[in-house]
Specification:
This protein is α/β, with parallel strands linked by helices. 43% of the residues lie in helices and 20% in strands. Helix 3 links the parallel strand 2 (45-49) and strand 3 (65-69). The longest helix is centred in the last third of the chain and has 14 residues, at 117-130.
């Protein structure tokens, strides 16, 4: 899946352009993700699971922030976004990824998404069985300094 095809599918989905942002106070690269969600016209609503970051997310997203929830399970009881963007420490991410898969979301997770391969393998199997994308972010790959190195 390319960025373009993902964005086109977001725009065409029944939950058109809705994204779950699942994070915590020290979520990796959170400001970059907030900026990307704010600037992406295909994203119409963002639901936040990570109330410790509400002020930062609200400042960056404005009216796109459509709800704030204590955790991923609470968010998915109320909303069914097509995509979940999970930016959490690797020790915290697996339950959030599992909740998003159970809710029918495609997933973009910060890497590493798990501490142990044994924690990640069942998530990959579940995503494959449900025909859902489980993608890992490699944000620094396009950074000019990294490309030069």
């Amino acid at each position: 899946m390319t960025r373009r095809s993902l964005l086109l599918s977001l725009a065409a989905a029944p939950s058109q352009g809705e994204v779950a942002l699942i994070t915590h106070a020290d979520g990796p690269h959170l400001s970059a993700y907030i900026e990307g969600l704010a600037k992406t016209p295909e994203v119409s609503k963002v639901f936040l699971a990570g109330p410790a970051t509400e002020q930062l997310v609200r400042k960056g997203l404005g009216a796109k922030l459509a709800g704030v929830y204590k955790n991923a399970n609470e968010l998915f009881k109320v909303n069914k976004p097509q995509l979940a963007l999970i930016t959490m420490e690797a020790t915290l991410a697996p339950p959030a990824i599992d909740a998003a898969l159970n809710a029918g979301c495609h997933i973009m997770a910060e890497k590493p998404a798990c501490v142990r391969v044994e924690d990640f393998a069942p998530l990959v199997e579940k995503a494959n069985a449900k025909k859902q994308f489980l993608m890992l972010a490699f944000a620094n790959r396009i950074d000019p300094v990294m490309r030069h190195a």
